[in-house]
Each structure stands twice: as structure tokens, then as C-alpha cells.
Design a protein that fits this description.
The chain is of the alpha/beta class and about 450 residues long. Helices cover about 40% and strands about 15% of the residues. The chain contains 15 helices and 14 strands. The strands form five sheets. Strands 8-10-12-13-14 form a five-stranded parallel β-sheet. Strands 5-6-7 form a three-stranded parallel β-sheet. Helix 9 links the parallel strand 13 and strand 14. Helix 3 packs parallel to helix 10, helix 8 runs parallel beside helix 9 and helix 9 packs across helix 10. The longest helix is centred in the middle third of the chain and has 20 residues. The chain is globular and about 65 Å long. The N terminus is likely disordered. Manganese (II) ion binds next to loops.
């Protein structure tokens, strides 16, 4: 590639597709001009020129077809992993409402996820949670998923629902409990091998509720020890994504409370470990885009759990509460990956629990919101932004971002879907399909439940 075109490729955002692991997007665009992904808002057709407040002119003539093509191709190749647990009944500690037709087991969750993939064309992987999704025959699960047109993505160990975990799992004071937790993660690594997944996504509920309950530094050292044992068991090429969360279920302290702790441990473990940012796992007011930018620059960002929040870890539809924040996160992703010579692998996953809303439609809505945020980030005029930054033009720079954020990208996304042979409106297509009514008839409510939530 590089010999004919010595310039850095215009976009290094890594994407996944059905053909397997990370696929560098820049290979697609190596022959396009460097400014290709520095797309202005005038890429999208406008009826007439409009003056902006800072005197720049938006023009319908500005869209070179190759620029529009590059954005369309980027949108088509940007894939999102959906979580098995988002298709089953789940709820709060107050009540789990049953949704008619909600998936009751892994096969039904995979079927629903496969429908989301058929409708959007960009969700070929499904994350699983063990033991919620435990099966005896993983080879059969793998081929069933393949028949449906999807495959298993990240394997998530569950280190929070055993009686033994009252005082923690990997940090527990009792070495026997720590060993039990390690054994469970090793079992997940084995499952990942059997289903051809290369990702273990690890979140700990470990923490304490009262000052003095345990020795905080001792817990940290226990965690380092158990994680080292887990890391050593990873297959070559497998990744360990370390997810943090500032509170809940523990209320005084959480052993992996923030990105700095996850970063420190991932660094100590080695290159197969990376940080996973769940967008619902921060205190109010935290600047997510800043965290993402920092981790990207350190090449320590491994993936996302997307969802949205208003108060705590609310697990609401991605972008439903703070769409500008979601856009700013994607702006950092596009900016960083455009300027780096080596594309980082980042897994874009949804982690939602739908309490009162229909599961499949909520998942579709999240996928659409993620695509919108990504498309808008691709439209940021990075040249104008850099100029405004260099000139100390605070509001000019802000308006460059606002311009992209306020662009209506629906026509662009609809075109991308049509080119993929899909309905331009996946939610309308889902509503027309009769799938929801069919599963409501064919899947009677299960008493035992399909998710890890009590009463589900
Ligand atoms: C914890 O709140 C979390 O975000 C972790 O990713 C869990 O595995 C997931 O939610 C499922 O409840
Ligand atoms: Mn999560």
C-alpha cells in the first residue's frame, strides 16, 4: 500500500466485519486524498448557500463524490456488537417487567440479535455472559450462530452472582474464593476458544461498603495476583478488556473504580490487556471524551460498552440522554484514528438492560444513534478546526463541532443502507416485519428467566 502513496492514510478507524477480526479501514481509502475524512457539513446536499456566523460559507458544491463515497464506506464498515442480555427480560431491584416475546435463552437471544444484524447490516457479533448464557455444546452454539449469520463476540465472566462473592471475587480475602473466581474466568477463556472469540470482557463488582471493612492495598495486590494468573491463560491474540465502574453494587469503595486503575492494571499485565469504557460508569459531570482521548493517545483503549445514563448506571438507549456527549466521544475516535499511523483495535459494544421498553427495538434505536454519532464525527471539518484552535478562536472551533453535530445525517445513513441492500429505515422495517408479534405468540413467558436479574 504505502509505496504508491506515502501520505498517511486518511482514516485509521478500525472496524470489524463478518470476515473476522479487526480490519483496517484505511486500506479502503489509501488512494483517496488526505482530506477525504475531513469532511465539512457541506458534504450533504443543501438547497442553497448559507452564510454561517463566522463568515464561512456552506455550499452544496463542496461535496466531492469521492469524499461522500469515503464517508459512506466508513459507515457501512463500522460494526457494533450487541449483548445477549439486552434481548432478555431485565429490570431494576424493584421490578422486572416481562416483555412479551423477550428472548428466554441463548438461542432466542441469538435469533433476535441476528434480526438486528439483518436489519442494520452492522451487528454481526453478539457478546455473551457466563453463566447466564451457559450451554453444554459450544460447537453447536457456534454453528447455530453461523447459520443465523452472526458469531459470538466478547465472553463476559460473571463474578458477582455467587453466594461466595459477598466480599468480592478476584479481590476476596479468602484465597479459596479468589481461586473459584479465577477458575470461572479460565472457563470463559476456554469457551471463547471454542466459539472462536478472541475477547474476554471483565467487570468486577468487587468492593466494600464500610470504611475499614477490608485492607484496600491488600485487595489491590490480590487483584494483581489473580489478574496475572488470568492473563497468563489467555490464548495468543486473545484480548482481556478491563472494565471499571465507580460504584454499585459496592458503595464505600470499588476495587476497579475508574479508568486510571483499569489502565494501571492493564499496563502491568501486558499488551493483550486494554481498558474498556462503559459510558454509564462514571460520576456525574465526568468528561468522557477526555478519557477516551487520553486512552487513545496511550493506545490503551480496547473497547466500549455503550449505553446512556441520567443518574447512575441507568443502561438506557445509547445517545438518548446526552447525544452531544456521544458525538464528542466519536469525534475523539475519528480525530485520533485519523492522525495515527497504526490503527488501534477498538471493539464497539452495546451494554444495555431494557426495563420497560421493547428489547429489539431499543437495540435498533441504539445502533442507529451510534451510527449517527459516528457519521457526524466523520463530517467534522478538521482543517477548519485546527485553524480555529491555532488562532485561539474558541467559539469558531466550537462551531466547527456544532456544525457537524447539527448536520442531519439521516439521508447519508439511508443511502448507506440502501447500498447494502437494506431498508433505509430499520425500525420501520422491524415494525412491518411482524417479528415482534410472532415471538410474542411463540415464546410464552418463562418463570426461570433469561437474564441474571432476580425475578426475570
Ligand atoms: C456492570 O454494570 C456491567 O456494565 C458489566 O459490563 C456487566 O457485565 C454488565 O453490566 C451486565 O450487567
Ligand atoms: Mn458494561
Amino acid at each position: 500500500m504505502g509505496s504508491e502513496n506515502p501520505r498517511p492514510p486518511p482514516c485509521q478507524l478500525q472496524v470489524h466485519d463478518d470476515r473476522g477480526p479487526a480490519y483496517p479501514l484505511f486500506l479502503l481509502f489509501q488512494s483517496l486524498p488526505l482530506h477525504v475524512l475531513c469532511i465539512k457539513e457541506d458534504l450533504l446536499k443543501r438547497e442553497q448557500d448559507q452564510p454561517t456566523e463566522d463568515g464561512a460559507r456552506l455550499t452544496s458544491q463542496g461535496l466531492a463524490s469521492e469524499e461522500r463515497r469515503a464517508v459512506l464506506e466508513a459507515i457501512k464498515r463500522f460494526t457494533i456488537e450487541t449483548p445477549s442480555w439486552g434481548y432478555g427480560d431485565s429490570g431494576t431491584r424493584f421490578k422486572v417487567f416481562h416483555w412479551p416475546g423477550a428472548a428466554r435463552n441463548l438461542r432466542e437471544k441469538l435469533a433476535d440479535a441476528a434480526l438486528v444484524h439483518r436489519l442494520t447490516g452492522v451487528c454481526p457479533r453478539v457478546a455473551i455472559h457466563i453463566p447466564w448464557d451457559k450451554e453444554d455444546d459450544w460447537a453447536a452454539v457456534k454453528s447455530y450462530a453461523a447459520e443465523l449469520g452472526v458469531r459470538i463476540g466478547a465472553v463476559n465472566p460473571n463474578l458477582f452472582q455467587d453466594e461466595e462473592y459477598r466480599f468480592g471475587s478476584l479481590c476476596h480475602p479468602d484465597p479459596a474464593v479468589r481461586q473459584r473466581a479465577v477458575k470461572h474466568v479460565l472457563e470463559c477463556i476456554q469457551i471463547a476458544r471454542e466459539v472462536d472469540s478472541d475477547t474476554i470482557s471483565l467487570w468486577l463488582a468487587d468492593g466494600t461498603n464500610y470504611p475499614g471493612q477490608d485492607d484496600l492495598r491488600a485487595r489491590k495486590r490480590r487483584l494483581e495476583e489473580t489478574l496475572t494468573e488470568i492473563y497468563a491463560a489467555l490464548a495468543p491474540g486473545m484480548r482481556l478488556l478491563i472494565e471499571y465502574k465507580f460504584f454499585e453494587p459496592a458503595f464505600y469503595h470499588t476495587d476497579l473504580a475508574d479508568w486510571g486503575m483499569a489502565y494501571t492494571l492493564a499496563r502491568k499485565l501486558g499488551p493483550q490487556a486494554r481498558v474498556l469504557v462503559d459510558t454509564g460508569h462514571h460520576p456525574q459531570g465526568t468528561n468522557l471524551a477526555h478519557i477516551v482521548a487520553f486512552l487513545l493517545d496511550e493506545d490503551m483503549l480496547g473497547g466500549f460498552h455503550f449505553n446512556d445514563r441520567r443518574y447512575a448506571d441507568d443502561d438506557l438507549i445509547v445517545g438518548s440522554q446526552h447525544p452531544f456527549e456521544l458525538f464528542l466521544v466519536f469525534n475523539e475516535l475519528v480525530a485520533a484514528t485519523t492522525s495515527q499511523s497504526q490503527a488501534p483495535r477498538i471493539d464497539y459494544m452495546i451494554d444495555q438492560s431494557h426495563n420497560i421498553e421493547p428489547k429489539i427495538e431499543a437495540m435498533l434505536q441504539s445502533v442507529l444513534h451510534i451510527q449517527s454519532a459516528y457519521a457526524r464525527a466523520l463530517l467534522v471539518d478538521r482543517r477548519r478546526l485546527a485553524e480555529a484552535q491555532a488562532a485561539g478562536d474558541v467559539l469558531g472551533a466550537y462551531r466547527v463541532l456544532r456544525d457537524a453535530f447539527e448536520t442531519d445525517v439521516r439521508p447519508l445513513l439511508a443511502q448507506a443502507r440502501e447500498e447494502m441492500g437494506l431498508d433505509p429505515d430499520p425500525i420501520a422495517a422491524f415494525r412491518r416485519s411482524g417479528y415482534a408479534e410472532e415471538v410474542a405468540r411463540s415464546r410464552p413467558a418463562s418463570k426461570s428467566g433469561a437474564s441474571g436479574y432476580p425475578g426475570a
